[in-house]
Amino acid sequence: MAEILKGAPVTAALNEKMTAEVASLKEKGVVPTLAILRVGERPDDLSYETGAMKRCGAVGVEVKNVVLPADVCQTDFDAALTSLNEDDSVHGILMFRPLPKQLDSEKARQMLNPAKDVDGCTDGSLAGVFTNTKVGFAPCTAQAAMEILDFYGIDCTGKKAAVIGRSLVVGRPASMMLMHKNATVTTCHTKTVNMPEITRQADILIVCAGQMESIGAEYVREGQVVVDVGIGWNEEKGKLCGDVKFEEAEALVGAITPVPGGVGTVTTSVLVSHVVEAAKRTL
């Protein structure tokens, strides 16, 4: 049976580190603060907001909630975002997306100050990922996958890695971050030919295909480390599932993240860690 790479111990370690860093910052007069910019009352936004606030509170990070009506106009939205960009007491901004149709989402993404872009959505942040420099922050889910590899002592140096998915949210950033860890990386996508043959050669496989339970036994091999980023609700099984067919993969691979209880568990802690790091950079 595969080793189960649970996210809870990773989160606990991150929280312990952040609690100490926040205490140190407060001694220097800096109170790490996250601003959450939300438009409307989408249930998924509210759920994530609750989780983020709880995680911030656990380590001493302050939260400033800015809630705009669902029918807010572009001018008022721009003013709210500009105010947060210019507020020196705010170190990180979480801007919930997608925005309502009356707002220009691309304009909003580019308006956000990369130094406060703790969710890694701006071009500045993505450039920082590709150049491996401290410009903005990496997308939280991609970094959560890296945090799991680090915590469990999985050395990427010289290893073959494959990433299934090429989105700017997970796939491409994860590929670059693996490369920075000295892995040899292949990025697979919907146009990849003979994908199972490629993924079976990998020592480390990160799956962010965006298709629930689309990756079965034919994609994996013995000894592999599999990080499943996907999550969706399986109506037939009545439970959350990842992009990987867990039972099939677990019987073969060396280690695998569960869904739920894996990458998603770590993502919010990564978001909060970015707020703390943004505060540290102001000193």
Count of structural domains:
2
- Taking strands numbered 1, 2, ... along the chain, how are they ordered across the largest sheet? 1-11-8-7-5-6
The number of distinct helices, counting runs of at least 4 residues, comes to 10
- Averaged pLDDT, please? 97
Beta-strand content bin? 15-25%
Structural class: alpha/beta
CATH names the topology of the largest domain as Rossmann fold
The description of the largest β-sheet is: 6 strands, parallel
In which range does the helix fraction lie?
40-55%
Q: What is the first-to-last residue Cα distance?
A: 48 Å
Question: Roughly how many Å is the radius of gyration?
Answer: 19 Å
Low-confidence stretches: none
Shape: globular
CATH class designation of the largest domain: Alpha Beta
SSE ordering: EHEHEHEHHHEHEHEEEEHEH
3D architecture notes:
The protein is an alpha/beta fold. It has two domains: 29-117, Rossmann fold, CATH 3.40.50.10860; 140-265, Rossmann fold (3-Layer(aba) Sandwich). The chain has ten helices and eleven strands. It has helices spanning 8-27, 43-59, 74-86, 105-111, 123-131, 140-151, 171-180, 195-200, 246-250, 263-281; strands at 3-4, 33-39, 62-68, 92-95, 160-164, 184-188, 204-207, 225-228, 232-234, 239-241, 255-256. The chain has a six-stranded parallel sheet with strand order 1-11-8-7-5-6. Strand 9 (232-234) and strand 10 form a beta hairpin. Helix 6 packs across helix 10 (263-281). It starts with a strand and ends with a helix. The model has no long low-confidence stretch (mean pLDDT 97).
